[in-house]
Structures are given as structure tokens and as C-alpha cells.
Amino acid sequence: MGLEERRKREKENRKNAILKAARKLFFDKGSKNVTVESIAKKAELSKGSVYLYFKSKEDIYTQILLSDIDKFHKAMVNLIQEGQSSSAMLMGLANIYTDFSLNDRELFRIMMNYMLNTDNMNLPEEIDHLIVKATNKTIGIIEEIFMMGIRSGEFPQYIDLRQKRNAIWGLLNGIISLHLFTGTEEKREERIRSTIKTGLNTFLRGMRTPSGNGQ
Amino acid sequence: MGLEERRKREKENRKNAILKAARKLFFDKGSKNVTVESIAKKAELSKGSVYLYFKSKEDIYTQILLSDIDKFHKAMVNLIQEGQSSSAMLMGLANIYTDFSLNDRELFRIMMNYMLNTDNMNLPEEIDHLIVKATNKTIGIIEEIFMMGIRSGEFPQYIDLRQKRNAIWGLLNGIISLHLFTGTEEKREERIRSTIKTGLNTFLRGMRTPSGNGQ
DNA sequence: TGAACAATGGTCACATACTGACCAATGGTC
DNA sequence: GACCATTGGTCAGTATGTGACCATTGTTCA
To answer: Which nucleotides of D are covered by protein (CB under 7 A)?
Structure first.
């Protein structure tokens, strides 16, 4: 409750106001189409002040990405809980991934680009590395869930893990990007979620069906 | 949502932070025993900054008094509502007055001093005038409520208005100050409220009793 | 009683935070 | 390839905040 403390708190608040404004703008328009002036205006500051808190536009951008990647990563890691079927866990993962894509279209776009090997977007080394790591982590988690499903008898033993995992990962990214970058905002979230839900369920049903050998 | 607007807003917030801190301190210790330094500290500012928003300690003090007197005054004026018995209105007035005294012991003390003719406390002309006005207004309202009660037949016609009104006003101030400036904080509010409630009710019952002629 | 001292309202030179006109680089247009 | 519009980044000037200091007042104690 001291004076020093108050000033520190206010500094932090300013920084957060800028980040909040910038996140919204980057989300809406993509990094390239956002001016520092517009960030400043949205944060109710002058442009000069923005540069008191960040050393460049890219600095703002990367800090947002870093924090979002981190959030995403943590959400993924928290996924695997006891007492849930593998199918339920996969549906949970799909939901989290959908949340994330809706919440941060820009980052989703980047991750998609990585997946498609459309190469990097001139991102700093640090970000580049972390995105790859987050992506791999997610894929790894899908794989892990499958293995748990096999151990518990929910899935057949002889499925091709890599193949299934890639199919799921592709399904998610494909459905989301299809809806996210086309059409109107109208009921977008609803459409994505229902498409993913039925698509994933169909896929899992296929895997659990003995007659199909899960292949 | 503009820049100019934000700065204005923040200025206002600073000022309010100082007022809030000062009100608490004045309430607890009385104006004389509060230092500007302590106000600044509580508001998490330096002393110098306090003088950016107020021209003197007295300025802070009077602004608080003015705003509180105004609030008090408005609450009193709002009292007279349709569809209530005069007794209920008087009880309402007593409650508001109790709220106020608990909330602003310092101002209550000043008003008591006026009533007792213990003379002024070197207050600026403006304040002095307003306090007298608020006091008279309150007394006037009590009188008005009595008149309504007479018109509606709730009270006998021949009561001595001035005498009754002074009795009520004295009762309220006496009970509150008795409890407010003596004893401990322990259940103070409860004690004040219950004493006022039964005291006022007894008085009103006496007025409505024909055998006693309301005198 | 009056010298020494403590306490505190108010001031001001210095420090920090904020602003927006300006500059340089970039990309688009004709 | 000259012109222009746009925009990331800079910096001199302004607004806001700080706390050591000063002047005054009241208190203590020899």
C-alpha cells in the first residue's frame, strides 16, 4: 500500500492497457495492418508513451504471442486428467483448441502456417522455437491420449498411432481454418464447435468399431 | 474513450483518492490531529502531490464537509414520501440521521456544537452558512412531518409543534452523541439504533394517547 | 520566562511520465 | 523515377509527482 508500490502498479496497468488494446487490434486485423498510432489511441495514450513501455511494434507483438503461447501450452498440459475416457479427453482438447483459435486468430494462423510449412513469418528466433514446441507438445498430447486409450482397452491395440494422431490434428486444424477464414462472423463459433463435435465423434466411433479394425 | 478524456478521468481519480483517504482520517481523528503527510501517505502520494489538487489542508477539509452536508441535505429532502404515516417518516428521519452520524462523526460533532451554541470552529463562511441551513432544514422537516400527522389525524390538533419538534431533535442528538463519544466501538451502531427506536416510539405513543392530551 | 526543540503546513527544484510534431524509410501510383 | 501517402521510431517540450527544505507555531524544561 506504499507510494513506490502504487507507481509500480500503475506502470504495470499502463503496460497491460497497451497489450490489451494491441491484442484486440492484432486479432482483428493481423499484425501488419495495425499501426502503433492506432494501438496508442485505443489504449488512450500517445504514440510516444507506447515506446516508453515497449521498444518496438514487434516487441509488443512478440510479448502477446509469447503470453498466448504460454497460456495455450498450459491449457494443453492441464488436459490429461484422471477418470476421463480418452474420447472425452480428445473432445476436451478439441474444445480448448477451438477456444484458442477463436480467441487468437492471428496466432492460430501462424501455427497453421508452420504446419503447412509455409515457412516462417520473419518471427524472432524465440517465438519461432516456442511455436514449434507448442505445436509438437499438442501433437504429443494427442498421441499420449491415444496410448492411454489403448492401455485402457478403449481403442484397439494395433492402431497406427502416428496416423491417427495426424488425422485428428488435421481434422481440427482443417475444420477450424475452414470456418475461421471464410464466411461471416454469424454463428461462426457455433458452426465450428458443432462440426468438430460430430466430426471427431464419427472418427472415434470408427476407431472403436471392431469391424473396421480401427483402421 | 479519448486521450484527453483519460487524463481528465485520472486526475479526477487522484483527487478522489485524496478525499477518500482524508475523509477516513478526519473521521477517525478529527481535523486537527490529521497531518497532510498522513493523508498523502494513505492516498499513496507524496505531500507535494496533494498540493497539486488542493490548495491547503483546509481546502480538503471543507470540500469533504461540503459534499457530506450536501448528501445529508438531499437525504433529508427525499424523506417525505406519500403513503407513509408520520410516525414512519419520523423513524425514517431518525435512521438517516443515525447513518449520517455514524458515517461522519466529525460533521456530526460540528452540528452538535452549533446546536449547543458552542460557537463555530473557525470554519469558512460558506461552510458555516450551509451547516446552519442543513440543521434548520432538518428541524423544519420534522415540523412538517408533524403538521402532516395533524392533518391526517394521526396526532392531536392542539400539540405545541415547536416543543414537540425540539424534543425529537434533542432526543436524536442526545442519544447519538451519548453513544458516539463514549464507550467502545463494540455494538455501538446496534445500541444507538435500538435506543433511538424505543425512545422515539415511546415518545410518539405518548403523543397519540388521548388521555395524555399529547402534551 | 525564554531558549531549545518537535511538529507540521506549505514551497520548490528536481525527477519521472507523457505528448505529438517531426524525420526517415518504405511502398504504392502514375 | 519523381511524387506522395503511410507509418515506425525519436525527441524537445509539457504535465505530473516527489521529498528535502523552510517558516511558523506550540511545547518542554531549565
So the answer is: 6-12, 15-20
The spacing between the Cα labelled CA in B196 and the C1' in C4, in angstroms, equals: 53
Buried b (16+ CB within 10 A) or exposed e, A35-44: ebeebbbbbb
The nearest CA of chain A is from the CA of B87 a distance in Å of: 47
Residue B64's nearest CA partner among B27, B119, B109, B89 is: B27
Name which of A3, A5, A44 is nearest B3 (Cβ-Cβ).
A44
- The CATH topology of domain A64-212 is Tetracycline Repressor; domain 2 (1.10.357)
Contacts for B46 with CB less than 8 Å, ≥ 6 apart: A3, B40
B78 beta carbon to strand D: under 7 Å: no
d(CA A193, CA A177): 12
How many beta-carbon contacts under 8 Å exist across A and B? Answer: 18
Q: Which CATH class is domain B60-212?
A: mainly alpha
For CATH 1.10.10.60, the residue range(s) in chain B are: 1-54
| Residue type (1 letter), B180 | L
The per-residue pLDDT string of chain B (215 residues; one tens digit each, 9 = 90 and over) reads: 788 999 999 999 999 999 999 999 998 888 889 999 999 999 999 999 999 999 999 999 999 988 988 888 888 888 887 788 999 999 999 999 999 999 888 888 888 877 776 555 667 777 788 888 888 888 889 999 999 999 999 999 988 999 999 999 999 999 999 998 888 888 999 999 999 999 999 999 998 876 544 44
CATH architecture of B1-54: Orthogonal Bundle (1.10)
Tell me where in chain A the CATH 1.10.357.10 domain(s) lie.
Answer: 64-212
Q: What is the least distance, in Å, from the CA of B5 to any CA of chain A? A: 8
ipTM of predicted assembly, 2 dp: 0.74
**Could you tell me the distance in Å between the CA of residue A135 and the C1' of nucleotide D10?**
39
In order of B27, B34, B122, B178, the CA distances from B118 in angstroms are 20, 22, 12, 17
